[in-house]
Design brief:
The protein is mainly beta and 80 residues long. It has one domain. It has 1 helix and 6 strands; from the N terminus they run E-E-E-H-E-E-E. The chain has a 3-stranded antiparallel beta sheet with strand order 1-4-5. The longest helix has 4 residues. The chain is elongated. The two termini are 22 Å apart. The relative contact order is 0.29. The model has no long low-confidence stretch (mean pLDDT 93).
């Protein structure tokens, strides 16, 4: 991470490992999530995205696309 670079950057991948991490100095942030084989994911089939701008970093996971009827919902879990 280059805090002097204020220009936003974002990358997305189809992460089949089921975890993503960010490490800086003596801090490590890890999140675990379910990977669903043969599912379709948003953002050009990405289930993991990393965004950075200056000193800000976001590690985001995305659930598979689902079609829902009105008044219905799904649950998506991340674990540390």
């Amino acid at each position: 991470m280059d805090e002097s670079n204020q220009s936003p950057q974002k990358i997305g991948i189809l992460n089949k490992q089921g975890w993503a991490a960010y490490e800086w100095e003596n801090l490590r942030f890890v999140k675990h999530f379910e990977f669903v084989e043969d599912a379709v994911y948003p953002d050009m089939n990405s289930n993991t995205e990393v965004y950075t701008a200056g000193g800000f970093v976001e590690v985001e996971t995305l659930s598979p696309m689902r079609k829902l009827q009105p008044e219905r919902f799904i649950a998506y879990s991340e674990r540390r």
